[in-house]
Automatic annotation (TrEMBL):
Belongs to the tetraspanin (TM4SF) family. PANTHER family: LD03691P, TETRASPANIN. This is Tetraspanin. Pfam families: Tetraspanin. It comes from Adineta ricciae.
């Protein structure tokens, strides 16, 4: 039990460090920051989200790291207080995740409309103001996702305001990228759902393991357990 809890939290530590590293990279990389800042100027909704992307990732990484450290210290030092704190925070995190999943499902239609509207505003303003880096990013997306425009090729105007991407030139009847992205997510929904379910299952195992170890420590004569013969005694 103790070993499994340690392994689980070591994985959490790796995830936390990875999130912090990605957040720092996004923050300091000039090319990435330049594209984000240009996109952010196009929409209040996406601008706020993109502007705080790095801070959210760093903050999430720090929180994940702290949770994992409580779990590791509780397991290594046989400290019930740390284990209970770890279990409480992990349980709270699971509740928040479940609420977020339920809200995303209930408001799926509204979220889809906001997403499409926001993406089009970013695209349209990039065309109007000739923001080449943003336009290039969209056209790279078109080539990779085999789509054209946000809704369709007419988003570029008649005649087109810029040189069209290879995809739009080769197949102007292609579906819009907003629908292509949704289709991609729907196609991989079982994988995404399975991954999220796996994360929740791991968190549940960590929660149960922490509580079980804390309860076992409570009933230990000297408040310390020694691992012998496959069991804590």
């Amino acid at each position: 039990m103790r070993g499994a809890l340690l392994v689980f939290n070591i994985l959490f530590v790796i995830v936390g460090i990875t999130l912090i590293g990605l957040g720092v990279y996004i923050k300091v990389d000039d090319n990435f920051a330049s594209v984000l800042s240009k996109i952010a100027d196009n929409s209040d909704f996406s601008g706020q989200a993109l502007g705080f992307l790095a801070f959210v990732m760093i903050g999430g990484g720090v929180v994940t790291l702290l949770i994992a450290l409580f779990g590791c210290m509780g397991a290594l030092w046989n400290n019930r207080c740390f284990l209970y704190i770890y279990a409480f925070v992990l349980g709270l995190l699971m509740i928040l995740e479940l609420v977020a999943f339920i809200m995303a499902f209930v408001y799926k239609g509204q979220l889809t409309d906001v997403y499409k509207d926001t993406l089009f505003k970013v695209f349209d303003k990039a065309l109007t103001e000739n923001q080449t880096s943003v336009i290039h990013a969209f056209q790279e997306l078109e080539n990779k996702m085999k789509c054209c425009g946000i809704h369709n090729i007419s988003d570029y105007g008649k005649p087109p305001k810029v040189t069209l991407s290879e995809r739009c030139l080769a197949a102007p009847e292609s579906e819009g990228c907003s629908d292509a992205i949704i289709g991609f997510l729907n196609k991989h929904l079982p994988i995404i759902g399975g991954s999220l379910g796996g994360v929740l299952l791991l968190e549940l195992c960590g929660l149960i393991g922490a509580i079980a170890l804390a309860v076992a420590l409570k009933h230990a004569p000297d408040d310390t357990l020694v691992y012998k013969g496959g069991k804590y005694r």
